[in-house]
Amino acid sequence: MSSKSKIIRIGTRDSQLALWQAKTVQSQLERLGHKTVLVPVKSTGDIVLDKPLYELGITGIFTKTLDIAMLNESIDIAVHSLKDVPTVLPKGIVQAAVIKRGNVNDTLVFKNNEEFLSARDAVIATGSLRRRAQWLNRYPTHKVENIRGNVNSRLQKLEDNEHWNGAIFAAAGIGRLNIRPENAINLHWMIPAPAQGAIMVTALEKDEEILEICQEINHEETQICTAIEREFLNRLEGGCTAPIGALAFIKNEEVNFKGILLSKDGTKKIEVAKVVPLGKHNDLAEFCANYIIGKGGKTLIDQLHRSKQETNIYSTKKLTDDQLLLFHNDVVADSNDAIKISLNRIPKTVVRNEIKNVIITSKNAVEALLHNFSAIELQFKNIYCVGRRTKRLVEKRIGKVTHTESNAKKLANYLVEYIEGTEVTYFCSDLRLDDLPNILSENNITVNEVEAYQTKFDADKVEANVDGVMFYSPSTVESYLKQNKASGIAFCIGETTAKAASQYFEDVRIAKVPTVESVIELVNEHYV
């Protein structure tokens, strides 16, 4: 099908401003001879208006519904305000074009006159954390109140609300709808949201034809500047939830950049400004973000994250940044290692001769062995393991695994049937479970236990009343309960852990496979 005969379905939110943006894209495409149709979709951001955006805890609240429509292939492209789009797009969806940018400024719309700007007491309305923080930084004695809704309804609220002196809007929004009041001034001192005033088009990564068409309406200068601003935001971990401003513009073949990070109340402010030649701007965002982080930005962001919401899920193992990103939007996870491992010294005599049968039930035991000996010194004829991850590590670093089971009890029962000879060496922790040695001893198999590592209990006292706790071994359960009461759901990595948890927790759930990611999936299912 030739691109000129395909009807391009343009997905858009159904607010007045979103439709204006979609029609702008539509007219640019139609001017180039493409056939189009608008497909309006309602979004959560438009429906839940009783809370400020940052409290909804979602970045991309306005884009999610359109993302789903696109992944379901009911639209070909989606049109967004670029500043509302999360800096990381969903898998399979890409930025296809950015339209020439409008006015980037924030605008103050005021009631009667501007005299209140020099007054000690005044009340300004905004739903944006960034505008609020910058206003309070400049006017610390003023009060800022929350306002939500589309542009028209916010202008109406300003008019109806007696004690408000003014409200802050994006100049582009009120300009595009042609409803900018007389009494409005651009706030040139306020650094806008990254990509403010820019319209972005997304499409499916696999749809080469559509991507090619969108390139025809892409405005390169806007694309360069907004990409720098959004990368700066991304590197500072901001969504709608941190007061971050960024502005890049090109003048005389140079890229000018200004960035800012503030505390919520505006009392702390870290700024950066830099000019580089066009073409040498690739690491500009990274440089500026690192500058802010180095000037105390990391502490500021950590405080923002902590103050944001109460934890509702606690993990007894420290989770990586990538793992934290896997949680459902409703989850606010906190994590720390409830157990600290210290590796023991294992005497050389233990491994002087070949050992016929060895049992390794955890990755910690592998680490302890390799901490004491080189792989060549470990002459093991048969290695028996618990868990796929332990098996993988053993095979990568020590040698072939004879047999593996998902838990210690199953392994013990297997060995009773199939072991060569009547003796095993078990590299374990000081806190091992009794199942394995007991079953083997009862069946006349001698168990030589070598304490390879020690497990120290080091759980946090969790302040919040959590919905659930994630456990990864019986000792994580024990450690957690030394500091905390058993309440909520126990999300467990496997059978053995679940058995330990079920002595204390009423609701115990077990992951499909024994991985941290699978436990996260289990948590997510609870929130769907």
TrEMBL record:
Instruction: Name all Porphobilinogen deaminase N-terminal domain ranges.
Output: 8-211
* Reaction(s) catalysed by this chain's protein: 4 porphobilinogen + H2O = hydroxymethylbilane + 4 NH4(+)
Q: Where's the Porphobilinogen deaminase C-terminal domain?
A: 225-278
User: What Enzyme Commission number(s) appear in the record?
Assistant: 2.5.1.61
Listed GO molecular functions? hydroxymethylbilane synthase activity
SUPFAM superfamilies in the record: HemD-like (SSF69618), Periplasmic binding protein-like II (SSF53850), Porphobilinogen deaminase (hydroxymethylbilane synthase), C-terminal domain (SSF54782)
The pathway this protein participates in, as annotated, is: Porphyrin-containing compound metabolism; protoporphyrin-IX biosynthesis; coproporphyrinogen-III from 5-aminolevulinate: step 2/4
* Keywords annotated in UniProt: Porphyrin biosynthesis, Transferase
| InterPro entries to which the protein is assigned, alphabetical | 4pyrrol_syn_uPrphyn_synt_sf, 4pyrrol_synth_uPrphyn_synth, HemC, Porphobilin_deaminase_cofac_BS, Porphobilin_deaminase_N, Porphobilinogen_deaminase_C, Porphobilinogen_deaminase_C_sf
Keyword Disulfide bond present in the record's keywords: the answer is no
Cofactor dependence is on:
dipyrromethane
Residue ranges occupied by any Tetrapyrrole biosynthesis uroporphyrinogen III synthase domain in the UniProt entry: 337-520
Q: What does this protein do?
A: Tetrapolymerization of the monopyrrole PBG into the hydroxymethylbilane pre-uroporphyrinogen in several discrete steps.
Assembly: Monomer.
Family note: Belongs to the HMBS family.
Q: What NCBIfam families is this protein classified in?
A: hemC
Q: What is this protein called?
A: Hydroxymethylbilane synthase
